[in-house]
Amino acid sequence: MKKIILFSIIGALVIGLVAMPSSSLAKKKPIKIGFFAPLTGHAAQTGRDMLSGLQVFLTEQGWKGAGRKIELISEDSEAKPAVALTKVRKLVEKDQVHVVIGGLMASSGYALMPYADSKKIPAIYAIMASDDLTQRKPGKWMVRTGWASSQPSHPFGDYAYKELGYRKVATIGYDYAFGWEVIGGFQRTFEDAGGRIIQKLWAPVGTMDYGPFLGRIDKDADAVFALFFGAGALQFVKQYKDYGLKDKIPLLGGGTTTDEHVLPSMGDEAIGVMTTLHYSGAIDTPVNKKFAVAFKNFAGKIASYYGEGPYTGGRWIIEAAKAIKGDVEDREKFLKALKSLKMPDAPRGPIELDKFGNPIQNIYIRKVERVGGELQNTVVKVYPKVSQFWTYDVDWYLKQPLYSRDYPPLKK
Amino acid sequence: MRMITESRLKISGAIAAFILLVILPPVLPSYWLTILTQMLIFGIMAMSLDILMGYTGVPSFGHAAFFGASAYVIAILSTRYQVGFLGCISSAFLLAVAIAAIFGLLVAHAGGVYFLMITLALGMVIWGLAFRWVTMTGGDNGIAGIPRPDLGIPISLDDPISFYYLVLVVFLLVLFLLYIFIRSPFGQSLMGIRESESRMRILGYNTWLHKYLAYVVAGAFSGISGILWAYYNGFVSPMDAELTASFEAFLMVILGGPGTLVGPALGAGIMVFLKNFISAYTHRWLLIIGGIYILAILYAPGGVMELGKRLAKGGDKE
After folding, report:
1. Beta strands A359-371; A274-277: pairing state
2. Contact A176/B9, CB-based, under 8 Å?
3. Does residue A193 sit in the same domain as residue A130?
């Protein structure tokens, strides 16, 4: 009996210690940045690249900014929205961070938004790309420094018709929101220019054998537009060649299909594939070269947009903090600074935000080439200052449904 | 003598836990309060699974289906159709029961590995619906913005403390109901089925019906935890109905001790705590949790509850 009482007392003490609030806030204490991304599980490599990107920037700054020290607290969100939400709660309520940054899956973005609004905590979305986050369901406290999924696809659809001269394109992509949006954006502008999507194939996320899909690709197509990422991208591009399609039908794709994240693991099968994104490792500017070298020294691998996103996101935070002289405790003022910031010289090029909080930025049409023995995404055309709404009227655009599996529909 | 200490241990443990759960929350920082709320919600789910795993002796790998289904009902009704609190919870609860009643027809004849495989497949059906029925569920993006319920009383459940007490009340109620359930003659015959189904059948029990009803009851209570989860997070996604979610519930029961009711709730608490506590310190936290499981299986196959008993006995001898 005595022992039980003793155990309960010890238990209570332990809980009490763990539960102590970490610190009360005071001026000139560090600016605390909370980071969350999947650091375990199938998306762990991507999450680690994101964390590295942020760490590279903060290391460059000597972990100081706006006259204050910078403290980074990172949490593993396991690529699950409910976990991401729990971890952000921990960052905000226990660690008392001033701003949160990170997130990979679009679903985490939607889950987080109402919480950020209720706690009035600025949330920087450096990678999470789902269109509606800054379109039909925008959140007040969210600042997207990354991109919207369909944003790079819009100019590419136009380009494919006008400059590549394609008239009929077949598409294949991952069967979920990100895939639908990237392919939907391409379809809208390609068809508005006069082209026609003749086939849309959807593969479940995680498909490792694309044979059954490749056999079904319409041989009348002038080109194939593909959207994959990670191991699936490696496998698809390889099988596309193995099935003898590479020499017959040119391959186009969303940015992640030949992203620098997967490119080093690809071979000659990738050469000539054209994709579109708001970043390329091969952008020839001093600031991008400096970033690429720093990232390689830090993480031991080539920088991709997963690294560039949080790198620029971190810089976004620090520059906004500088603009208000480090007074990040004044959340409203901080948010305003974050939303009105312009960055003319990010590694990916100039960035400013539209009124929905999505970047207006360069979109790069890229072609895989082998330069000096290494594969790279050579930039063949730059579309400057591309908005998430492309050239469409914003009100009209927002009245259209969100891109989905069946929208825009396949025309007969 | 030993019997007396054991029951004394149980009673004092229960009282200590009860007091901690009631008194602690107002002084806890808000983050730990949300974790505690999570523990209770998963505690309800683990206890409901214990009906199947611990008392009937059939392992279910699809328990998150009911949890997810009722959470989705709350999300869809409250965000899209602005249905009131009572409408939401009764529809969510009824749907969980209905799904369990239909699935039960397919699983109740099976046992052992077959039961496991069928429940796994059925669980994936619900996950597939959540993932692919985009117009209704929002697909991969999930549904956000579920408001906290308005009970029509002057206490606002937006306040984490009052929401916590609501969850606590539900938790205690579920614990009480399940306790009565397993103590009832029906519960006793479930345990008979666990020990030997063929013998029970020869004795004249309709074992199919027993298993069927146990499955429906377990599904219904899992649905209750799903309702609380939807309100707690304000968000649902296909991940809530996924295989991993079912698997986690399974591990909670194993860790806590199957067939002890309180054990799985404790297992849920430990699991939620470990996930949130260790992962703050190391990104290799899955390794540590894996290690804990291996140790639990090797040295305490009856879970935390058995370990507690053994410690108490050891204490007697000294």
Report:
1. antiparallel
2. no
3. no
Looking at CA atoms only, how far is residue A290 from chain B in angstroms? 29
- Which residue in chain B has the smallest CA separation from A89? B31
- Could A76 and B279 be called an inter-chain contact, meaning their C-beta atoms sit closer than 8 Å? yes
Q: Beta strand pairing status for A123-125 and A99-102?
A: parallel
CA distances A137 to A109, A113, A114, A140, B301, Å, are 11, 9, 10, 10, 49
Q: Does residue B210 belong to any structural domain of this protein?
A: yes
Contacts of A258 (CB under 8 A, 6+ apart): A233, A237, A266, A270, A273, A275, A366, A368, A377
Q: Is some CB atom of chain B closer than 8 A to the CB atom of A371?
A: no
The three-class DSSP label of residue A356 is coil
Nearest to B215 by CA among B68, B110, B121: B110
Contact A404, A184 (CB under 8 A): yes
In a domain, B191, yes or no: yes
- Residue A347 and residue A247 share a domain: no
Please answer whether residues B160 and B30 qualify as being in contact, where contact means their C-beta atoms are separated by less than 8 angstroms.
Answer: yes
Write down which residue in A335, A357, A379 finishes a domain.
A357
Q: pLDDT of B207-228, one tens digit each?
A: 889 999 999 999 999 999 999 9
Question: Which amino acid makes up residue A283?
Answer: I
Tell me how crowded residue B83 is: count the other CB atoms within 10 A of its CB.
Answer: 17
For residue A2, being part of any structural domain is answered with no
* CATH code, domain with A203: 3.40.50.2300
> Which run of H or of E encompasses A274?
strand A274-277
Query: Is A106 in Cβ contact with B140 (below 8 Å)?
Result: yes
Range of the domain at A369: 153-277+362-399
Number of domains comprising chain B = 1
Tell whether A117 lies on the interface with B, counting CB pairs under 8 A.
no
Residues A366, A244 within the same domain: yes
* B49: containing domain: 35-242
B234 occurs within a structural domain: yes
Do A140 and A175 reside in the same domain of the chain?
Answer: no
DSSP type of residue B261: S
CB pairs under 8 A between A and B: 100
Identify the residue whose tokens are 């976990």. A83
CA distance B51 to B182: 8
User: Would you mind telling me the total number of residues written for chain B in this entry?
Assistant: 318
Do A133 and A181 reside in the same domain of the chain?
no
Using a CB-CB distance cutoff of 8 angstroms, which residues of chain A are in contact with residue B79? none
Q: Looking at the domain assignment, is residue B88 inside a domain?
A: yes
Model pLDDT for residues A16-39, shown as the tens digit of each residue: 444 444 433 445 789 999 999 998
**Scanning the structure block, which residue is given the tokens 């990738």?**
A270
Q: Is B26 exposed, middle or buried (0-12, 13-18, 19+ CB in 10 A)?
A: exposed
Interface touch B9/A4, C-beta < 8 Å: yes
The answer, as to whether pTM is greater than 0.90, is: no
Give the Cβ contact number of residue B179 at 10 Å.
Answer: 14
Q: Tell me: do A174 and A299 sit in the same domain.
A: no
A186-225: per-residue pLDDT in tens?
Answer: 999 999 999 999 999 999 887 889 999 999 999 999 999 9
Which of B18, B164, B235 has the highest number of chain A CBs within 10 A, making it the mutation to test binding with A? Answer: B235
- Residue A38 CB: number of other CB atoms within 10 A? 25
> How remote is the C-alpha of B165 from its chain's centroid?
18
DSSP classification of residue A300: S
Examine residue A17 and state whether it is found in any structural domain, yes or no: no
Residues A310 and A291 in one domain: yes
- Smallest CA–CA distance, residue A381 to chain B, in Å, is 32
What is the H or E stretch that residue B123 is in?
helix B112-132
B234 and A80 within 8 Å at the Cβ level: the answer is: no
Q: Which residue has the higher pLDDT, B163 or B312?
A: B163
